[in-house]
Design goal:
The protein is an alpha/beta fold. The protein contains 13 helices and 12 strands. The protein has a 7-stranded mixed sheet, sandwiched between helices. A 3-stranded antiparallel sheet has the order 7-6-10, with no helix packed on it. The two termini are about 25 Å apart.
Length: about 375
């Protein structure tokens, strides 16, 4: 049996939508399906403004342009994240200030943020790992105290909640990913969610290469021109035609992923009770979207052994982030191993299991059977 780590989901109407794009002869951004996706998310998530982008990376870049990030500014974030979180503001000349993560949720430890704040701090970037929300109450409280921006990296958190509010709508801005590895996908894509109306017009300008082209298309100006910095952040209409079908089926997808998650959890609970592994923790205030299922082994050698054995059985499990502070670039920023002990420990122990919509119970049972067998042999 061969079981991939991920398999992109396709519903039956994606091709119908793409055909309509070709019939309309509107291939570039902000056509019918781009607008439908934005409206759908604004309505469902209660977001004040949603702008589709070519990636979550680009949504983050837009957010940091919008807050006028300058060279020498500092941004507080976890080291246990994808490199885009940090690249987006380092391109503006800002420096990452890394904070260790919590051992339960693997999210940034909100109790360690305040001690990292200096006069140069401009923003906090909570990353909602595995679709489980950070402690946004405390993070927003700290941000208000020091007049900082909160930019949520909710790449993994689409359609997940914290205390009843959707991730990405709680800070000043939020960013989503629709990469093929995410719950809702179109190959490559993202979105910027904006709470404050003050940023709406400039966000449109930045997204349209620094021009007021959006106002021109709405008939608000008789010609458009260069008015600010910006770049080409609009996704092609073909991508949003695919995404629209995914978004319409968000709750169907979430329900199936929940079943997969709970089946793993139930069958691995005995291993956790025997202290062989540790399972994901979802605080009561968090409504997850079941983005991934992982287990934590006792050591890196055990994790690597299990990865190898599963691969021999055709099961493609994987590890996750290498901490940014221990990377070559992190070391150039004068970080070193030992600076963030929880981050380093989790990175060496985590193993992510196959998790995708079309994963059958038979396939899942095969994964479970082999995980249990190899862990018991350690």
């Amino acid at each position: 049996m061969k079981i991939p780590f991920n398999k992109p989901l396709v519903f039956k109407n994606e091709m119908t939508n793409i055909k309509k794009v070709f019939q309309n002869y509107r291939f570039s951004g902000d056509g019918e399906f781009t607008k439908k996706c934005s409206r759908l998310m604004e309505t469902k998530f209660g977001a004040n403004k949603v702008l589709l982008t070519t990636s979550c990376t680009h949504a983050l870049e837009m957010a940091f342009i919008l807050i006028n990030l300058r060279p020498g500014d500092e941004v507080i974030c976890p080291s246990y994240t994808f490199v885009s979180t940090v690249n987006a503001f380092m391109l503006r000349g800002a420096r990452p200030v890394f904070v260790d993560i919590r051992e339960d949720t693997l999210n940034i430890d909100e109790n360690l943020i305040e001690e990292k704040i200096t006069k140069k701090t401009k923003a906090i970037v909570p990353v909602h790992y595995a679709g489980v929300g950070c402690n946004m109450d405390k993070i927003n409280k700290i941000a208000r105290k020091y007049n900082l921006f909160v930019i949520e990296d909710a790449a993994q958190g689409v359609n997940a909640k914290y205390k009843g509010e959707f991730l990405g709508t709680i800070g000043d801005m939020g960013t989503y990913s629709f990469h093929e590895s995410k719950n809702y996908q179109c190959g490559e894509g993202g979105a910027l969610l904006i709470k404050n109306e003050f940023f709406f017009e400039r966000a449109e300008i930045i997204r349209e290469k620094g021009t007021n082209r959006s106002k021109f298309f709405r008939g608000e100006v008789d010609k458009y021109t260069w008015v600010d910095v910006g770049s080409s952040y609009l996704p092609a209409e073909i991508l949003t035609a695919v995404l629209y079908e995914q978004l319409k089926n968000m709750d169907v997808i979430k329900k199936k992923r929940k079943q997969i998650f709970e089946y793993y959890y139930k069958n691995f609970k005995d291993l956790e009770l025997r202290e062989k592994i540790r399972l994901p923790v979802i605080p009561v205030e968090c409504g997850t979207n079941y983005h991934m299922f992982y287990i934590l082994l006792s050591s890196e050698s055990e994790r690597n052994y299990l990865l190898t054995k599963l691969k021999e059985k055709g099961i493609y499990a994987t590890f996750h982030y290498i901490p940014l502070h221990t990377s070559p670039t992190g070391k150039k920023l004068e970080y070193k191993e030992g600076d963030l002990p929880i981050t380093e420990k989790i990175s060496s122990q985590i193993l992510r299991l196959p998790m995708f919509y079309e994963l059958t119970e038979k396939e899942q049972a095969y994964v479970i059977e082999n995980v249990i067998k190899f862990i018991q042999s350690i």
